[in-house]
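Pasting as-is:
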Amino acid sequence: MSTETQDEGDDLEERVTNFLRRNFPQIQMHGGSAAIQDLDRETGEVSIALGGACSGCGISPMTIQAIKSRMVKEIPEIEQVHAQTGMDGGMGGGGGMSPSFPGETVDDDGEEDEGPEAPF
């Protein structure tokens, strides 16, 4: 790889990082993080991992969609964005809490949690 190609690649990574900082400050304000996991300059694909409070957050799918749609418009070299949280089993981002379901947890007294009671 030539030095010129390497410099262009570093510039691309910097632009993606700046995009994340500039467009999604609320991710950091809410205890989340967004980081580049992989950047393939030849195919124009970038993989982004959302972590911290993003793992398990109910609005993380909307955040992912916003990243995907905005990044390809703003950075012409990027053709496809893969973005995931640690909750969906991808990229090993890890973190966050797993959802629990009735019958899957045990209370302090040793009894299974049957979940909340119906109000009727």
